[in-house]
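Comment thread on ticket #2218

A.B. wrote:
> Attaching the input chain for the structure job we discussed in standup.
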Amino acid sequence: LEFMGSGRVDGVILMAPEMNNEVLELFNRSKRPFVLLNSCKELSNTVSFNINNYQGALALVEHLIGHGYRDIGMITGPEGNCDADE
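C.D. wrote:
> Ran it. Output below, let me know if you need it in another format.
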């Protein structure tokens, strides 16, 4: 975040499922545009985009099945992480 204040950063695209208010306030004070990817919180006045992990996983499994794979496993992230839970 300090690097943003150096003037060498025009904007930030941040993939941060867990965003606390303190970090969000630092971004707001930087006066630099920022976009959040896969933020689990509903944040007002913040541009964010979410990825549909369920549909992505479904498409992947269908692709693997279409190529003859049958024993398919999955390892997810930590419990309680919104991406892992999806």
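A.B. wrote:
> Thanks. Noting for the ticket: The first strand starts at residue 12 and ends at 15.
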